[in-house]
Amino acid sequence: MQRWTLDLKRPDWRNALEASAVCSAITNGELVAVPTETVYGLTADATNGEACAKIFAAKGRPQFNPLISHVASLADAQRHGEFDSQALDLAKAFWPGPLTLVVPKKKTSTISDLATAGLSTVALRVPEGPVMRFLSEKTGCPLAAPSANRSGKISPTRADDVIADLEPCLSFIIDAGPCSIGIESTIVGLTDGTPRLLRPGGITREDLQGVLGSSLQGAPTNVQPDAPEAPGMLLSHYAPNATMTLNACEAVPSDALLSFGPDRVPGADQAYAEFNLSPRGDFAEAAANLFRGMRTLDTSGADTIRVQFIPSFGLGEAINDRLQRAAAPR
Ligand code: TXA
Ligand code: MG
Q: Which of 81, 140, 170, 259 could form a disulfide with 276 if both were Cys (CB 3.0 to 4.6 A apart)?
C-alpha cells in the first residue's frame, strides 16, 4: 500500500494526483482509500463487479448491504438514477455535500448489480470533499465507497484509522487529514413518492424539511438484524470493543467517560479516561470528534464507556443514532 499525503490548500494538488498511479489503480479494479468531508471511503470502480466484490471481502460486509456510488455532479448522478422533483430539489440544495439520495436505478445505469445488491434502487452522492469528485471525473467511473472500516466497526475519520483496519487490502490511501464533518452522509430515500430519512447524518432533518416543505418520514422501524428493510440499518454498528452506556448521569472510576458540553456529570474528574466531544457544546464539533472519541476511549483500557446525555435535535440526531447503534447488544 502506498500512502499519498495531499495538501488540499495547495492549488496544484489535482496535477499531483493526476500524475500519480491512483487513477489507473481505480480503473484496474483495485481498492483505494479516499477522504471525503464525512468519513474516509473504501473506493472502487462501481461499474466493475469484481472490484466491488473486493470491497465486500475487505470489509467483511454482507453482500445484501448495497454501496453508495459517488459521482462528480448531479448530471453524472442522473445517468444512473431517476430523479423526481423532490430528489432534484434536495440535490440542488445540498450537493456537493453530505447527502445520499436513494432513487430508482435507471435500466441504462452501468453501476454493477453487486454495488446495488441487486436492488432496483441506487444510492448516489456528490460529496463536498473534492478528492472523490476529482477521481470520479478523471476515471469516468462512479465510485462505490462505503466507510473504510471493517463491517460493524467504528468509521474512520483519519488515514491512520483506515490503515489500522484495512491496510493489506489497499493499493493506495490518500491522506488529506481529518474529515471535517466526521459522521456519514444523511441518506434520504425517494423511491415511492414519500421522502424517507433512512439514516440521519451530516445534513440535518430540519434542513431537509426546510427544502421539502414537509416533514420527513422516519426509517422503517421493523428492522431485523439479518434482514433489514433499509439494508444498512443494522442495529449494532459503529461498535467499539468496550461496552457503551448512554445518557449517563454520573461517572465512576472504573469507566471511561465520553462527555459533551461545559456541564460536568458528578464524578467526571475521577473517570478512568475522558474525551469531551465539544467542551463548548457545539454539535458540529461533537460530530467531527465522535468516532475519534470512541476510538480513543476504546483503547484507554476501560471495559465500559459511559456517554453523557446529548440532545437529539440538529446534528444531535445523527450523533445519537451512531451512539445508539454503538451501544446496541451484539
Ligand atoms: O458519508 C458517507 O455516506 C460515507 C462516505 C464514504 O461517502 N459512506 C458510507 O457508506 O457511509 P456505508 O456503506 O458505510 O453506508 C451506506 C449505507 C448503508 O447503510 C446501505 O445499506 C445504504 O447506504 N444504502 C446503499 N444503497 C441503498 C439502497 N439502494 N437502498 C437503501 N439503502 C442503501
Ligand atoms: Mg459504514
A: 259
Q: Computed over its alpha carbons, how large is the radius of gyration of the chain? A: 19
For the Cβ of 223 lying below 6 angstroms from any atom of ligand 1, the answer is no
Contact 157, 292 (CB under 8 A): yes
Please give the distance, rounded to the nearest whole angstrom, from the Cα atom of residue 12 to the centre of ligand 2: 31
Number of residues written out for the chain: 330
Counting atoms of ligand 1 from 1, which one is nearest the CA of 119?
29
Ligand 1, atom 1: nearest CA belongs to which residue? 184
DSSP 131-162: HHHHHHHHHT--EE--BSS-TTSPPPSSHHHH
Residue with cell 426509517: 219
The pTM of this model reads 0.94
| Mutational test site, ligand 1, from 32, 34, 68, 223, max ligand atoms within 8 Å of CB | 68
184 lines ligand 1 (CB under 6 A): yes
| Ion ligand 2, residue ranges at CB < 5 A | 147
Cis peptide leading into residue 228 (ω within 30°): no
